[in-house]
Amino acid sequence: MFKDFMDFMMNDFFITGDPLILGAQVSIGLSMVAIVIALTYFKKWRWLWTEWLTTVDHKKIGIMYVIAALLMLFRGGVDALLIRTQLAVPNLEFLHAGHYNAIFTTHGVIMILFMAMPLMFGLFNIVVPLQIGARDVAYPYLNSLSFWLFFFGAMLFNVSFVIGGSPDAGWLAYPPLSELSGSPGLGQDFYIWGIQISGIGSLASGINFVVTILKMRAPGMKLMQMPMFTWSVLSSSITIMFAFPILTVTLFLLFIDRYLGAHFFTLDGGGNPMMYINLIWMWGHPEVYIVILPAFGVFSDVVSTFSKKKLFGYKSMVFALMSISFFSFFTWAHHFFTMGSGANVNAFFAITTMLIAIPTGVKVFNWLFTMFRGRITFSQPMLWTIAFIPCFIVGGMTGVMLSVAPADFQFHNSYFLIAHFHQVLIGGVVFGYFAGLYYWWPKMFGFKLHDGLGKWAFWLWNIGFYVCFMPQYALGLMGMTRRFNEYNFDMGWQPLNVVSTVGAFIMGLAFIFQVWQIAHSIKFLKKEKSGDAWGDGRTLEWSIPSPAPMYNFARLPEVTSSDEWWEEKQRRAQGIEPKPLAPLEPIHMPKNSGIPFIMSVCFFVAGFGFVWHWNWMIIPGLIGVGCCLLARSFDYDTDFYIPVDEIERTEAALKGGR
Q1: Any idea what the Cα angle at residue 622 is, between residues 616 and 627, rounded to 5°?
Q2: Which of 212, 235, 485, 559 could bond to 325 as cystine, CB 3.0-4.6 Å?
Q3: Where are the transmembrane segments (predicted)?
Q4: Tens of pLDDT, residues 513-522
């Protein structure tokens, strides 16, 4: 019996025989041991539980999202370097075909769902309540649950690399490759349940922030007085509410196909794989706009701040954001123009795809006109914003080229398409969130990141990006298609592939500079003495100390303008006395809770059981989820009041620090 157990562990449970995966297993094991030893040696277990694992503070939750996203950026980036290494030389045997398929599948899923999404939600949590003058999000407990569902969903997906086997049917898992006939192993089940669990958290976050923005704005703040980043969060969250249920249902149907032998997407059983492809892109294309809309909000706030001007065309920006959110649901079929939908269908989706470029272009002009005759400061956030504009223009133009159905028959599945969506997702989403991280970093931690190292990282990222992806446009036009792990010498693709691989490693070097920048800034800490770290802050988050206290605002602000803090500074400069402060009152706040963390662990256990078809694990996991829901429903001790004397002590300490 022991021999059978060991055979199962070594042949089925753990992935063996690949030195890269063995290295990952060893590094993961050593890292876990090091973390346990460090927490035990420094006696930080209680601190970890009380300050982080059970917190419902939106700012701490935002920081955990950001840390998780940066870790996933490292994992997804390593996958990208492995892909580019394999493709640098014809007929290279660095990654065998199955491993290559797994690598490009996990790279796409991680970068979109487990890097871009948590980085986005991190900024949501850190910034939105502060911008709208709120003390927390509408549902703090749900906010904590959202993070932990995302985290354990991501862990369930990532553990497949070393246990059971990674998914290898592509990042959108088209049938029949994702059916049992095409993926008989466990990788696709890890894919389904990792994304399902994290997707529930994403949907809950979208609902939470819609309610927060609509119901918890500071007194006097009308919708058309909200900062532009908050508008972008609202448009993105509304899109999440309508898009993510489609993903949940689609993956559940695929799970039923694989687990119960149904035939929703199998032709020989009366199903239709095209139904899956329609459904997955009905989520997939809005998902692109879900992650890029908040980046547009970041650029709007950054451009206005560092140009020292009010944002040009505020109303047109609001209209552009909301119209993109709406039109994003009418463009999905341009992903399969070549699949025989017919001329009329292709024409409709070609037109809608071209239409959505109009509000996108409006924003670029608004940012340029905001900078026009402004007193521009070339800070790190502003550099990323300026770099984004030409990059995104190229991405938008190539997107319009792909929207032309006859042309798409030539570009489809080629490296031209790879270059296009990386141009948009790196040049738009990643550059945008980097701008946001640098901009709000002092608000999160109370210090700026080192400027010199940041500029090294900036230039390496940008040089590496263009060196990597510009050749891929040419490779696509030369006929190189994606998803192939090798090619012959006589294709003539090697020189451009070598250049592209060099560019990828330059971007990897840029990431190392960013890690160095963070470590250097922590070691040589230069605390910001003013809550307005950049000196030109325009919105409410810059009116309070950095980092913000637990309750954010001792007194809720009264708002009369979209740039309320800028207007208040102008009034003070003119000698206009501020209104007398209202007396302090006890502040109502939510209590920490361990239930979201425990419930998410139970989801992980149930998901792991579903992957392996272990009822002895599925049933306890689901019972644990039910018990957590029951415990929460009978938990009446969920909040407390911060007394006035404690608020006064906190405010005095913060002012002393400034």
Answers
A1: 125
A2: 235
A3: 20-42, 63-83, 103-128, 140-163, 190-211, 231-256, 276-299, 311-333, 345-369, 381-405, 417-441, 453-475, 495-519, 594-612
A4: 999 999 999 9
